Every structure is written in structure tokens, then in C-alpha cells.
Amino acid sequence: MNDLALGGEETPHRVSASMAVHGRFFVVTCFGLVFLNCLTFLYHFTGSSVFNVLSNSISLLLISWSAYHVLVTREGGAFYKILLMLACIFTGTSYLVNFGAFELSDGLKLLSIYSFYVAGRTTPERLHRSEKRCIYALAALPLLFKVVGQTKVYTGIEYPDVFSYFPNTNTAALYFSALFFAVSPWFGNKVLIAQFVNAAIMNRVGPALATIVAIGLWSFFPLRPQVFVALFLLAIASLAAYALGALDRLITGLNAIALIWSLDPSTIARMSTKQLIDLTGTTDMSAFFRITHWTNIWQIYSSLGLGGILFGYGASQTGVLTVLPLPPHNDYLRVLAEYGLLNCVIFVVFVFSIMFSLKERAAKTMYTVLLIYFLSENLIDNFTSMTLFFSYAGRFTSPKWSPAE
């Protein structure tokens, strides 16, 4: 059994030590995340930046812990290690091309996704009970804060949708989705019910729609005769709904979006909410602002030279360069524009190859929710959620993975 990529044959003592390190990866990671979230709790409860510095330090230690496993083991899959290496090269080149306009912490967050996944594949053991307790603790901490505290960090009119110590309910919904994904081998399809409860409590349409689409997608595959019958009935139902006018509201919304798309982003930025409502006939502004922002991002990115196209305009620079001072609210577009085409190709290949490697339906569905949610939010920024999703995805796709008893 060769677990250390140090060359030569291993002694029994070395093999035993290596296996011990492998077996501790998830336990240490989960305890680290609990400690990190306790510090986050205290940071928002007190407003003291000391706790923020300490929580960031824990994040760096956990990234180093995952990197250690990547470097010293032969497990993890050569394909994914190659993707990690290419991501490091392209992100490093993006940093050099955009020197002085590149947030290193954002680049590290992106690379850590690959690192946690590869490290997770090195641990084939079943889930430990201590991990389960840690996940319960991670679920309890924000709920406890909701009861006893009020954030002293996310304040003011720019944070109208705070939940516990999360900046908004989208971030909170993602956090609990990551917890459900991690425990999916224990609870199976029950986590999908919990996900709908999660979306209802957070009052977010996005997670609910993403869950419905994900469930529908993996109900269709593998293709069976019943699937084609269902698609035929769905087509008939859609035509009937259109004839009866049930889709008028959807069509009106799409027309309004097309109108917004045709306008210059700077024009939209100067318009008041009332003017936008009068123009489009709807009060749902979130989709319009996203589309306007995406259009502006694409205009900037597509106007770059070859170097910019390949390596982007720099991590975290979207809010600086665009008319609206906001991050992209689309992680695929974010990686493309801020890190470049080469990084985007690697990222897309990476995240979608994982989806097709997951075997258990509940885990595959919850992971697909994440990929859909990437289209409308800034999820890469959420360290705990990304750590849980990708480290456990690594474990669940490991050739040696054995589900919990």
C-alpha cells in the first residue's frame, strides 16, 4: 500500500502513520470549521475584529491542511490533480497579468475548492460519528445566534436581508444546503425535503427552483420509456397552458428582461426603482439588476485584449470596473471575467465532472443544486459551504468510498 508520494518502498510504520493522517482529514476539517464558525459567531456578536482575524487564520490553516494531503498522497486521482495544477498555473498567471488589481484572498478561495476536493478523495473511510456531531454543531450555531444575538458587522441599508451572522438569506440557504449534502449518505432523500424547508424558511425562490430542477434532471436520467412519456405529457400541458393564457405572466417577464437587456447598463444605473417599474411593468428588480450587471461585465471582458481574454481583469475587480459596484452574482461569469477563459474552462470541467461522478441520488441532486445556484449568486466567497461541498464531494466520488452504515 503506497500512500506517500515520496518515492521508494514504505515501511509498515510509515504506512500506518500515513493512514492515520488520512483518517483524520475530515475529523480535523470539521472541527476546524466548527471553531471557525464559533469565532465568526463571536465576531458578529461583539464586533471585535480580533475574532475576524482569528477566523481567517483558521481558514488558512484548513487550506494548508488540505494542501498537505494533496502533496503527500498518491490518492485523489491524477486527473483532478492535473486540473488543480493547471488552475494554480492559470490563476498565478492571472495575478501576474493583473498585478496590483488582483485580490489574493479571492484567488486562494478559488484554488482551495480544488484542493479540498482532491484531499477529500484521499480518505475512503466511512463517515465518523464525530463528523456528524460537528455538522449538527454547524447547523446549531447560526440558529443559536439568531436567538441570542444581532450582528454588529452587517449593518446599514446595504444589508437589508441579514440572517444570523450571514450577510443575506441566499448565503444562509447555501450554508444549510452544504450541511445537507455532507450528511446525505446518512439520510438519503430526506435531505431533499429538508432543502425545501430550508428554502421556505429563508423565503428564497432560488434554492427552491434549483432543487426542483435538480430533482427533475436526475429523475429523467438514466433515460427510460417513462421519461419520454412524461416529456410528451409536459409538452402537451405547456401548449395548453399557453393557449389558456397561464403563461402570460412569464412571457411578460421575459419581454421585460429583453427590454432591460437592450438598454445600456449605465442608463439602467441612473434610473430609479419607480422608473424601472414603470418601464417594465413588474416590481421584481433582482433579475433586472443581475442581467444589467452581467451585460456590463461582458462588455468590459469582451473588450479586453488577448491577455485579458485568457486571464481576466483580476480577482474582485468587477465591483471596481462596472457601473454597479457589485460582485457578479454568477460564479461562472465571475471566473471567466476575473480569472480568464483558461481558468473558466478548467473550473467548468472540474465542477461538472464531479456531478457525473457522484453515485448516490441525494448527493448528486444536492450537488446539482449548487451548480445551478452558481448561475445567480456569489457562492465561492462562502468558505465553510465550499469546504463542505467539495471535500465531501471528493470523498463521495473516491473509488474506495464506502457509505455509512
UniProtKB/TrEMBL annotation:
<feature type="transmembrane region" description="Helical">
    <location>
        <begin position="201"/>
        <end position="221"/>
    </location>
</feature>
<feature type="transmembrane region" description="Helical">
    <location>
        <begin position="25"/>
        <end position="45"/>
    </location>
</feature>
<feature type="transmembrane region" description="Helical">
    <location>
        <begin position="83"/>
        <end position="102"/>
    </location>
</feature>
<keyword id="KW-1133">Transmembrane helix</keyword>
<feature type="transmembrane region" description="Helical">
    <location>
        <begin position="227"/>
        <end position="247"/>
    </location>
</feature>
<feature type="transmembrane region" description="Helical">
    <location>
        <begin position="336"/>
        <end position="358"/>
    </location>
</feature>
<feature type="transmembrane region" description="Helical">
    <location>
        <begin position="51"/>
        <end position="71"/>
    </location>
</feature>
<keyword id="KW-0436">Ligase</keyword>
<keyword id="KW-0472">Membrane</keyword>
<feature type="transmembrane region" description="Helical">
    <location>
        <begin position="298"/>
        <end position="316"/>
    </location>
</feature>
<dbReference type="GO" id="GO:0016874">
    <property type="term" value="F:ligase activity"/>
</dbReference>
<keyword id="KW-0812">Transmembrane</keyword>
<feature type="transmembrane region" description="Helical">
    <location>
        <begin position="172"/>
        <end position="189"/>
    </location>
</feature>
<protein>
    <submittedName>
        <fullName>O-antigen ligase family protein</fullName>
    </submittedName>
</protein>
<feature type="transmembrane region" description="Helical">
    <location>
        <begin position="370"/>
        <end position="393"/>
    </location>
</feature>
